Amino acid sequence: MPFSMDIYAWDSFPIDTLLFWCFAAVMLISGLCVVTVKRVFHAGIAMIVCFVCAAGIYALLGCPFMAALQLLVYVGAIATMLLFAVMLTDKMMEPRPNTTFFQPFMGLFASVLLFGLLWLTVSSSKFGFAGWANSTAASSSAIDITSLSTTNIGLRLLTPYAVPFELISVIILATLIAAIALARKEDRSPADSGTPADAPASPAEPASTPAKE
Amino acid sequence: MYQLELHSVLSVAALLFCIGLYGVLTRRNSIAMLMGLELMFNAVNINLVAFAHFLPHLDGIILAMFGLAVAAAESAIGIAIILSIYRNFRHIDTDGINELKG
Amino acid sequence: MLIALIAIYAAVSVNALFLIWLERKISGRIQRRQGPMLCGPKMMAQKSMWLGGWFATACDATKLIFKEDIIPSKVDRLGFILAPIVVMLAAIAVYVPIPWSATSYHQTEQVTFAFADLNVGLLYIVAVPSLTVFSILTAGWSSNNKYSMLGGFRSVVQMLSYEIPMVFALMGPIILAGSLSLGDIVKAQTQGLFGIPFLGWFIIPSVIGAAVYFICAIAESNRPPFDMPESEQELGTGFNTEYSGMRFAMFYLAEFSNAFVVSSIFTAVFLGGWSIPGITPPPELNLGFCILPYFDLLVGLVVFSIKAYSVLLILMWIRWTFVRVRPDHLMNFGWKFLLPLSIANVIVCTVIAAVQQIYYGGLS
Lengths: 213, 102, 364
Hints:
The structure holds three protein chains of three kinds.
Chain A: H1 15-36, H2 40-60, H3 64-89, H4 103-123, H5 132-135, H6 150-158, H7 162-183
Chain B: H1 6-26, H2 30-54, H3 59-89
Helix pairs in contact in B: 1-2, 2-3
Chain C: H1 2-30, H2 42-47, H3 56-66, H4 77-93, E1 101-103, E2 111-113, H5 121-127, H6 129-142, H7 146-177, H8 182-189, H9 207-220, H10 246-269, H11 295-319, H12 327-361
Helix pairs in contact in C: 1-3, 1-10, 4-6, 4-10, 6-7, 7-8, 7-9, 7-12, 9-10, 9-12, 10-11
């Protein structure tokens, strides 16, 4: 959604390109922080910065609905869960088992190779868009699938994507049950075999504090 | 002339994907591996939303939303598994989790 | 754009400072005492209780600014320093889509006066407190203090449990109005229920939703009776324990501005925002220029402020009336009572919206 800044006569100032590159730069730098810093908690904070920048990019690409969903689900749920898990399991005092010396270099080699492949593919493709919207078989509905508004997203979710929508709710229900079953404490005593587990609500004594290093 | 192009957004997403891949391959802490995995999911979502913007077609956003939901579910299960592993092994170094019980 | 940013920051800060004074006065009156009386013009204080102690908040703020910035040695510095910043950011960012007023003077149609009337405004307002959740967790853990950590965990658990009924409670008005934009929701309330303008406020079709939203909003902003994360008697202010000076002031200001935001969202979504039932003229008449230019803007602003501050007074009243909720009671209440109730509210509002559509447009 290109919009113009009212700075004198700069009506065609490419603000959205500038903003995109700012968001992309911060996102990639924080992504690098996620994969390189030693303290996992700091990696978690960098990951949240990355998610917020990705939300900004979604808003720039014309879908603020997706941006708000990204904040709500990724930052509010996934990142919080990951930070909880970090607090429960982060042990800094254990001696580290030996690892292969070349592991970081092999990882770097694989990533660089993959990035080179993807970049060459992307930059040498000619993306031709003429007639795309009219040629898909699912465009028989009455809504305009070229406008990314929330109304259209809702309509498209209910027809023709109603079945995946219901299946997602089944997946989430299965996840809920499985996560509770996996994470509950195994109480073997017969006295309280009927107590429901509330492991997500009252976590065990956190395994680390920031000072243990 | 300075319009935002599709291949710039796709390259940025590809770079983020490879950074996440590096994290998954290199990190020893299981939760840090999950963080790299979340970066990869994000890169894929950026890809889909970019196509939805530039084509333009709505299905990119729909697929991105479904991917978001499935990523959240998968992350929850992953964390539950890691907590079980922590309870059994007392650490979550992936290099040390190499014994089956029994 | 820069002026708008400075304006919003100034407005938020001044508002929060005024609210802290108001809260202390109202708390004093509820407890049969006078509240702050000494920091202000003495002559006015002797005339009336309500004129005294105006500078109390300014004195408090000055004290907090000039306090020494103590960072304990064993804290995690990145998290400790980042948490108040992110909390303040989220508290200011959530002011953006609130519809203060609307005008049709010199416009082709009625334009909502908000900092930015996003068309996903309500979803944005639900999404931005996720940053608050993350920063409270970070603050609790980085402080390297068992009480702070417990306070942080409890707060996150409370906020996550009450976010879901809050979203469902807000879905009633979204279905009735047909839009996520707050400006559209307020405009839909001016049209009235089945043609009766006095019943247009969404508190009437979705009473349950309004009650659920009110309770969840108190829980989301960590206000008493849901202030278990910062309970003074048990946890010693919880995640705030290690913070002093300006950092504590940021948490404090963020909590008060959150309370105001929550009450203004309640008025915008359920109480009709800037409109007076029956008196606010339809926008086609274009009565923007009555006595002054932008007259309907000013009237709307005054009405909105009156409604928002009334809801805020009710919040303050509730603070000193109810006992603090215990954690297990809180979880039971949130998951087993409020969540089914809010889903029932969605069903009721859907039925009312469908009946209204049939009434207006025939069977479809």
